[in-house]
Amino acid sequence: MSHQLISVPIIKPVDALCNLSCSYCYVSGLRDCNVKNRMQPEILKAVIDFFCHDQDDVEFIWHGGEPLLAGLCFYQKAVELQYVWRQKGKRIENFIQTNATLLTTEWIRLFAGNNFLVGVSLDGPKEFHDQVRRYSDKKGSYDDVMEGINLLRNEGIFNGVICGISAINHEFPREIFNFFLEKGMKKLKFARVKDTGDCGDVSSLAISPTQYTDFMIAIFDLWLEADDQEVEIRDIQSVVDLMLGGNKRECIYTGQCGRFATIYSDGSIYGCDSFSKTDAVYFGSILDEPAIVRSNSNLRIFQETIRKRRSYCHNCNWHFICKGGCASDGYERLDSIEPLDDACKNRKRYFEHISTKIRSYGLM
Fold it and tell me: Does residue 3 lie within any of the structural domains?
């Protein structure tokens, strides 16, 4: 039985440490984080070497908490370590996801000078965003986020927005879509809020798969209506491309979840960041030899589960797109093979709506 190489690292250099206290944060263990949760130089070097050794094209995804809390010197060191591998012909890309409140001209200079692409978390207009993405004193972060986005845009390194869709804003797809277009933000991803974080003072911000699907169907219709080729909504673009015979896939449609791993500040390797940090998805340490990580029993069980899920769904008309869907979002347990009815039903509804509209345009 062959096993995939873990090839896409989601690196948390400060674990869950953050300068915000967002109500729905799924890693809101910041109360337990401090300066000791910063990745040390020897671990950083091991991360770079581990992922550059066995592949020619490498994507480093820097995540959090708030990854900028690792400091300028940390990323300067990362660039230096990557340069050694670039000299050997490796093609390396850096993506960082930030709340943008800590960006300064120094950060922009570093990122622009080293071709980082910077994504920002922004939950739509101020009246929505500030209800949930706040500082610990309850002050909203919208104004600071917009200042950071303007800095990024001025240097051409703004990589778009991830917008959390929660009980606060899911009933306002048109307002959200129009807001982003009016602000000239045309590279978008919408993410369903599934839980209320430890920082929350709201009873529940989570929305159901049905509510999220209703939102995304409305967004798809607005996208068609706008008829603007510059607007790229990641999930929609992926589904449309696959329906038209392409191969552009969001990670949730690859059926290869074992390729993605979260690397914490101590070098420990866990499953994709969508999973909770539990023993079942612990795959070893970045200090281990790659062969030892590849043979980790948890990783092998996980990869076999993904294979069985793809096989279970093989006869579905939408298997060519879905490939079983997100490994954490659509299943009752980590070892479940059959997807949850609600998740599956809504994915099919979403695909069918898009397919019907595309056919009406004579494109399929």
Answer: no
